[in-house]
Specification:
Layout (H helix, E strand, L loop, with lengths): L3 E7 L8 H9 L4 E5 L6 H14 L6 E5 L4 E3 L3 H11 L3 E6 L10 H7 L6 E10 H13 L5 H9 L4 E2 L2 E2 L3 H12 L5 E3 L6 E2 L27 E3 L3 H13 L3
Parallel strand pairs: 1-2, 1-3, 5-9, 10-11
Antiparallel strand pairs: 3-6, 4-11, 5-6, 7-8
Helix pairs in contact: 2-5
Length: about 250
C-alpha cells in the first residue's frame, strides 16, 4: 500500500506564521513534513526544493500531499485524504479556484473547456499525487518547459517575463501553462467539487454562503479536507473563522 506524506515548504520556520497549519494538523492527528528552502526564497527555488525532496524519498511511490505553509488548515486526517485521493483514480489531483489569476490570458479557454464548474482554475498552493507522477511533472517543468525558448516567449508575449533565471509570475503561472500545453501526458484531474481542496478566492466576502458550521461546502455538498485561504494579509479573518470551526 502506498503511504501518504503531508508536506509544506518554507524558507523560515515560524510557529506563529504557520499556526493555522500546525494547529489544525495537530487537531486532525496529522504529521506534516516541513521542507526548509535552504537558499533565498523565490518561486522557482520553491519548485526546485520540492523536486529535490521528491528525489530524496526512498519509499516506494508514496502519495505526496503538498500545501502552502501559512494560510492552510486541515479538516481531515491523512487516512481520509488518501481515501479521497484514491477514489479519483488519477496520478495527480490539483486544487482549483474561481479566480483566474497569475496565469496566461491565452490559457483561459483551455481550462474553461475542461469543465463548467465554477471552481476550475488551478491554484499552485495545494495538490496531491504519486511521487513518480509528480517527479515527472516537475522534471518536465524545470528541465524542459522553463528552458524552452518557445515556452518562454509565450510567457513574454502574455506579459510574463523571463530573464537570467529571474521569473516574473510564480509557480501557478508556469504550472498552469505547462499543463495547458502538455495535458495529455499526465493522468491528472482537477478537484472541481472541492472534495479534498477548497480555495475560497472569490467566495471570501460571502463565506457563509459557501461553508457551513461543519465545514461542508454548501454548493458542492463535499467537506473539503484542506482549506487554503490565499491573500492572508487581507483575508486572515476568513482563515481564522474557518479555523475556529474545527474546535
Amino acid at each position: 500500500m502506498n503511504e501518504i506524506i503531508l508536506v509544506t515548504s518554507t524558507d523560515i520556520f515560524d510557529n506563529i506564521k504557520m499556526k493555522y497549519l500546525l494547529e489544525s494538523a495537530k487537531h486532525t492527528s496529522n504529521h506534516v513534513k516541513i521542507i526548509e528552502i535552504s537558499y533565498k526564497f523565490s518561486w522557482i527555488n520553491r519548485i526546485k526544493c520540492f523536486h529535490d525532496f521528491l528525489l530524496s524519498l526512498h519509499s516506494v511511490n508514496p502519495i505526496i500531499c503538498f500545501t502552502d505553509a501559512y494560510d492552510v488548515i486541515y479538516t481531515d486526517n491523512d487516512s481520509k485524504i488518501k481515501e479521497k485521493f484514491l477514489s479519483f483514480k488519477c496520478d495527480i489531483l490539483w486544487s482549483v479556484e474561481k479566480w483566474y489569476s497569475h496565469q496566461l490570458k491565452s490559457d483561459k479557454e483551455f481550462y474553461d473547456n475542461l469543465n463548467e464548474s465554477q471552481y476550475r482554475y488551478i491554484n499552485g498552493g495545494t495538490f496531491i499525487g504519486y511521487k513518480t507522477a509528480l517527479l515527472c511533472l516537475f522534471h518536465d517543468l524545470l528541465e524542459i518547459s522553463l528552458k524552452d525558448k518557445v515556452f518562454i516567449n509565450e510567457l513574454n508575449n502574455d506579459l510574463f517575463m523571463y530573464d537570467n533565471n529571474n521569473f516574473n509570475g510564480n509557480d501557478q503561472t508556469w504550472i498552469s501553462h505547462h499543463l495547458a500545453k502538455n495535458w495529455g501526458k499526465y493522468n491528472i484531474k482537477l478537484d472541481y467539487e472541492c472534495d479534498i481542496f477548497y480555495v475560497p478566492c472569490g467566495d471570501w466576502d460571502e463565506i457563509d454562503n459557501y461553508i457551513d458550521e461543519n465545514l461542508n461546502h454548501k454548493i458542492t455538498g463535499k467537506k473539503p479536507s484542506i482549506i487554503h485561504v490565499p491573500w492572508k494579509s487581507k483575508y486572515e479573518n476568513i482563515l481564522l473563522k474557518l479555523f475556529n470551526l474545527l474546535h
